[in-house]
Every structure is written in structure tokens, then in C-alpha cells.
Amino acid sequence: MPHTRKIIIDTDPGQDDAVAILLALGSAELDIVGISAVAGNVPLNLTEKNARKICELAGRPDIKVYAGAIRPLARELVTAEEVHGKTGLNGPQLRNPTMKLQDQYAVDFIVETLMNEPSGTITLCALGPLTNVALALIREPRIAPRIKEIVLMGGGFFEGGNVTPTAEFNIYVDPHAADVVFKAGIPIVMMPLDVTHKALTTAKRTQAFRQLGTRVGIATSEMLEFFERFDEEKYGTDGGPLHDPCVIAYLLKPELFKGRNCNVSVEITSELTMGMTVIDWWGVTKRPQNAMVMRDIDHDAFFALLVERLGLL
Ligand code: BDR
Ligand code: CA
Q1: Which among 30, 36, 225, 236 would be 20 to 30 A from 20, CA to CA?
Q2: Is 176 a catalytic residue?
């Protein structure tokens, strides 16, 4: 029996979130203690439902799914239906889930799990706005030193932003939550747009999922075909960036990524640059290093890993 790593996936599915969840479900090294949904790509009532749809697609109705924050800490919710479609998971026809949503509030679930499990054994994988994670830290600050690591998709620096010239969606939607998380003194691994814009769902790669011939493989190719059309037009690329699975891939094969320890500070004051992740890549300030910021990815090996693991479902 391989040693498994316990993870909580905090997410706003979203097709790329869905592929990240499938990658985790296909990987025996990971033990998903629970999935906490947050408002982001689409409102909370859809993100929690989408998380359950994906668990059922993978034949895992036993996974516990919790609903968390309905809106960001201080700002109005901004969603991204233009990218993900009205349901957040447009593309395949997925059945309405029959597995139940857990009664417990996701933030309470995160706090309770971290307080009850041995310290340093739970990794948080954050694939959406950081509202749930920040609320958990505010509610029970004693969880901070108990978290093994937070691996998150968010931010961008050399690539700029994808919702404003300077801000990436997850951080832009709840910059105040991101500020709380980056200041909490927890080991953070950050997958910014600088990495994810190198992980493109080219036609050949999407086809490889379809060729698995399974329900999961076909649904994945349909999700990606829908999801990539917006970014293909925007960036003029073959395929769109497959953001969130980078987080799970890092847990499985950290050697696929390259980056450096930096200070990351989140802009929460200026409306012009709201949600920008100001990364001190060159160490020009004395601000303390608070995150491992990734910049490069072995994208061929990343897609090979995805096809291999989704093929197991
Ligand atoms: C991030 O925003 C969402 O649209 C994606 O799911 C991803 O988490 C990329 O900016
Ligand atoms: Ca997401």
C-alpha cells in the first residue's frame, strides 16, 4: 500500500477544476478527505453541484462534498460564464448528481479536519477564489501551523492578468481572502498564469483524452473543447491553458515544475490593479519569502500524466 497524502480540494468547478478533481481521483497516492466548493466561476449552488457531478462521473459518490462561501469577503462576486458556460461545466451532458451534499458548512469542515487530524498531514489544494480558506483561517487561526502546505492556482506576474491587465481570476474575485492566505505564514506553492499558460490543451492532447474511449475520457475531451474556445480566440493559440490540474500534478510529480521562493503580496487597495500578485522575483525588497512561485512546466509530461491517470477511472 503506497503512502497516501491527505488532501482537501477547495474548488469552483469549472472544466479545469473538474479535470483537476479527476486527476486526484485517478491517483492512488492521494486521499481526498473532502471537496469544499466555493463561489467563483459560477455561483455556489452550481459549483457544489458540479463537484458532485464529477465525483459521480468518476464512479466515486462516496467522496464528501461540502458547500462553503456564497460570496467573497468584501467584494461583489464576479463569475466567468463567458469562459465556462452557464452551468460552469458546459460541454458534455452530465447527469444530475444523486449523491448528497454534506450538511456541514465547508469552512467548518476545513477547520474541524485540520484540528482533528495529526498536525502537518493535511494539504489544501485551492483551485478557486480563496474565500473558504481565508474564512477557515479567520475562524480558527490555530489551523495555520497544522496545514502541511497550500498548493494553489492563482496570480500571474510575467504573464500579467487574465481578467484585468494585472489580475488573474481567482485572486481578483477575492483579493482580501488571498491577502489573508499569503500573510498566514503557511508554506504555499503557487501555480500562476506564468505556468498555466504553458499547459495548452492542443487539439492532439484533447484527442488523446477522447481516445481513452471511456466515459471520463470522452467527457473530458468535451469539457476541454468547450473551455478552450474562449482562450483560443483571446490568445490565438492551439488550445487553452489547463490551469487547475497543475496543482494536483505538483503533488504527484513536483519535478515537472520549476520556480523559486519569493515574496508575494496581493494588491487590495488600488482599483486599477486590484488583485494583482506582486511577486518579488528578483528579491529587490526585504519582504520575507512566503511562497514557492512556479514559472515553468514540463507540459508534455504533464499531459502524459493526465491521460495515464484519467485512463484509470
Ligand atoms: C482560474 O480561473 C478559473 O476560471 C479557472 O478555473 C482557474 O482556476 C484561472 O484564472
Ligand atoms: Ca478554478
Answers
A1: 236
A2: no
End-to-end CA, the chain: 19
- The four Cα atoms 299, 301, 307, 312 give a dihedral, to 10 degrees, of -140
Domain ranges of the chain: 5-310
pTM over 0.90: yes
Alpha-carbon distance 35 to 154, whole Å? 18
Q: Measured between alpha carbons, how far is 69 from 181 in angstroms, rounded to an integer?
A: 15
Does pLDDT of 2 surpass 70? no
Kindly list the protein residues whose Cβ atom lies closer than 6 A to any atom of ligand 1.
Answer: 14, 16-17, 41, 80, 83, 127-128, 153, 162, 168-170, 243-244
Give the tens place of pLDDT for each residue, 175-205. Answer: 999 999 999 999 999 999 999 999 999 999 9
Distance 1 CA to ligand 2 centre (A): 31
CATH of range 5-310; options 3.30.1490.20, 3.90.1570.10, 3.90.245.10, 3.60.160.10 = 3.90.245.10
Ligand 1 centre to CA of 228 (Å) is 12
- CA neighbor of 132 nearest in space, from 143, 145, 118, 146: 143
User: How far is it between the farthest Cα atoms of the chain?
Assistant: 53
